[in-house]
């Protein structure tokens, strides 16, 4: 939240001061007799850089302290003034890959706010560009307080961590020593870190030429730091505007009004890109508008700027005009962001219309496909009915075939029974016939008597031998040599059939030839009388 205010009111020397990291406010601390190294350590622990503290002697006992009073003199209460400036803004930096893990990392007991990644906007010089572009939350805080214009202290904190993640030198992450921070240029000028950016860029203010009036000092720092914040805002705007124009050149279909020549998938991707860009612009516009409103209230006719209009020093008057000019620049920048956001809104509406047309076209095509599918379904239903009728007929034929098969099975069963009876009768009558035929011959072949008992024995022996022979054949059918013998017999049978067929054809051809010859002779005999 932006807090740009001027306060001149009676208060205790134990007035609290807010330490902050990023945009988070930390618990309040009371300054007493502490060292500069302690303040610097606190600034580094909180992720900010402690810029500058102007010391003065204790009003009561004369100790050199960083507040208006030391610890033994806390009970003394008197009137002091306090000038505060809390200026939040955004900074666009390119984060190198080796520093990507530092984003949102913990520092001390707090956690830095994670930046907004805007690399999705694209990089026109991506071949020579590495890393991710991020928009970092930044803030500058300044408090000038004291009992009067002769004894006063200045405290300032500023975000610098995002600059460390964008340095590509090896010493970018190394902390600077006090000697390096206290370095002077070749002309012997020491830089005032509150008014300057501390990075060697922009305006440089000589701390060796102090400003004794706290109001003038406060105005100068408002002007310098506000100008730096405006440059960061303007850098972000130019970066976004350049990326959007480059995107339009690379994707001309985004502004094309012939919606039927665009791929629906490309429209969806373009719409997502536009919405994401609008979200970034909405965040920036909200914060910038809040800052502009705060400066408008400060520069209003009844605003806190009236506490500075009695400054007669020319430099103070120019710094006062710089604050007013900065307010106008912020208003113009808000309008630029508004125009850019309106162009994206117009594109978004155009893309929504295009996607709705694409959706309607796809719905129409889907309806056509549905009609064709219904037509095919009707034809398929008719075919299914025909197939069903054929299936019924096939079932009827199958039923009739089954009935015929049953009748044939009965006939086969009867034939089997007849064959079995015939075989049984043959097994009974064949031995008897053989025995009767043998015993009916006048010549004796075997040396036994022809008696009825012997005849009965022969009949029984022939029957048993025949059954044993049949059983032996059944057993032998599963042996290898029987199968080989059977194949040989089958081959021999086929050869015999071929020979018989050849002989039959030859005999048939001879008979045909003789028949034709005889028929020709008969025709010649019949034709002779006519001649």
Task: Please provide a brief summary of the model.
The protein has 531 residues and is an alpha+beta fold. It is built from 8 helices and 12 strands. Residues 167-183 have a biased composition (Acidic residues).
What does this structure look like?
55% of the residues lie in helices and 14% in strands. It is rod-shaped and about 175 Å long. Strand 11 (132-146) and strand 12 form a beta hairpin. It is an alpha+beta fold. It has helices at 36-45, 161-164, 178-181, 214-250, 264-299, 314-439, 452-476, 480-527, and strands at 3-9, 17-21, 24-29, 48-53, 56-57, 64-65, 80-95, 106-107, 110-111, 116-117, 132-146, 153-159. Strands 1, 4, 7, 10, 11 and 12 form a six-stranded antiparallel β-sheet that branches. It has a two-stranded antiparallel ribbon with strand order 2-3. A two-stranded antiparallel sheet has the order 5-6. Residues 164-204 are annotated as: Disordered. The chain crosses the membrane at residues 453-474. Residues 167-183 have a biased composition (Acidic residues). Keywords: Membrane, Transmembrane, Transmembrane helix.
**How far is it from the N-terminal to the C-terminal residue, by CA?**
145 Å
Biggest sheet: strands, sense, closure? Answer: 6 strands, antiparallel
* Count of discrete domains: 2
Indicate the low-confidence ranges by residue numbers: 1-76, 169-183, 521-531
Radius of gyration: 58 Å
Q: Please estimate the helix content.
A: 40-55%
Overall form? rod-shaped
Structural class category: alpha+beta
Order of helices and strands: EEEHEEEEEEEEEHHHHHHH
Beta strand %: 5-15%
Chain-averaged pLDDT: 70
Transmembrane segments: 453-474
Biased composition (Acidic residues): 167-183
Region (Disordered): 164-204
Keywords: Membrane, Transmembrane, Transmembrane helix
């Amino acid at each position: 939240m932006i807090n740009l205010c001027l306060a001149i009111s009676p208060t205790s020397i134990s007035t609290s001061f807010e330490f902050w990291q990023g945009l988070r406010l930390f618990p309040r601390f009371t300054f007493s007799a502490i060292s500069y190294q302690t303040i610097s350590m606190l600034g580094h622990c909180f992720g900010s850089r402690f810029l500058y503290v102007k010391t003065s002697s204790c009003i009561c006992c004369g100790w050199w302290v960083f507040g208006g009073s030391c610890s033994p003199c806390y009970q003394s209460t008197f009137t002091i003034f306090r000038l505060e400036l809390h200026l939040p803004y955004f900074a666009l930096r390119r984060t190198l890959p080796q520093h990507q893990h530092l984003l949102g990392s913990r520092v001390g007991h707090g956690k830095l706010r994670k930046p907004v990644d805007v690399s999705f906007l694209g990089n026109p010089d991506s071949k020579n560009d590495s890393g991710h572009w991020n928009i970092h939350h930044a803030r500058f805080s300044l408090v000038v307080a004291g009992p009067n214009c002769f004894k006063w202290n200045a405290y300032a904190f500023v975000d610098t961590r995002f600059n460390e993640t964008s340095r590509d030198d090896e010493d970018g992450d190394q902390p600077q020593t006090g000697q390096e921070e206290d370095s002077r240029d070749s002309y012997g000028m020491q830089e005032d870190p509150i008014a300057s950016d501390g990075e060697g860029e922009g305006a440089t203010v000589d701390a060796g030429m102090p400003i004794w009036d706290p109001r003038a000092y406060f105005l100068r720092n408002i002007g310098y730091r506000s100008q730096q914040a405006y440059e960061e805002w303007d850098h972000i705007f130019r970066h976004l505007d350049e990326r959007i124009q480059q995107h339009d050149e690379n994707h001309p279909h985004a502004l094309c009004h012939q919606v039927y020549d665009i791929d629906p998938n490309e429209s969806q991707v373009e719409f997502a890109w536009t919405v994401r860009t609008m979200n970034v612009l909405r965040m920036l516009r909200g914060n910038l508008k809040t800052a502009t409103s705060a400066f408008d209230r400060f520069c209003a006719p009844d605003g806190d700027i009236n506490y500075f209009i009695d400054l007669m020093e020319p430099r103070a008057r120019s710094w006062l005009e710089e604050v007013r000019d900065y307010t106008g620049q912020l208003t113009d920048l808000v309008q630029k962001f508004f125009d850019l956001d309106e162009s994206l809104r117009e594109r978004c509406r155009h893309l929504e219309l295009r996607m709705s047309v694409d959706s309607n076209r796809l719905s129409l095509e889907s309806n056509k496909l549905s009609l064709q599918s219904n037509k095919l379904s009707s034809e398929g239903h008719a075919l299914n009915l025909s197939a069903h009728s054929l299936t019924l007929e096939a079932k009827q034929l199958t039923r009739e075939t089954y009935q015929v098969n049953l009748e044939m099975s009965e006939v086969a069963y009867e034939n089997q029974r007849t064959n079995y009876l015939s075989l049984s009768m043959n097994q009974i009558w064949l031995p008897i016939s053989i025995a009767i035929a043998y015993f009916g011959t006048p010549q004796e072949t075997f040396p036994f008597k022809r008696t009825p008992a012997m005849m009965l024995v022969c009949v029984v022996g022939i029957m048993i031998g025949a059954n044993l022979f049949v059983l032996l054949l059944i057993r032998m059918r599963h042996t290898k040599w029987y199968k080989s013998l059977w194949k040989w017999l089958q081959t021999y049978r086929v050869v015999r059939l071929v020979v018989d067929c050849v002989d039959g054809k030859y005999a048939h051809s001879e008979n045909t030839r003789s028949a034709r010859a005889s028929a020709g002779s008969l025709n010649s005999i019949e034709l002779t009388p006519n001649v």
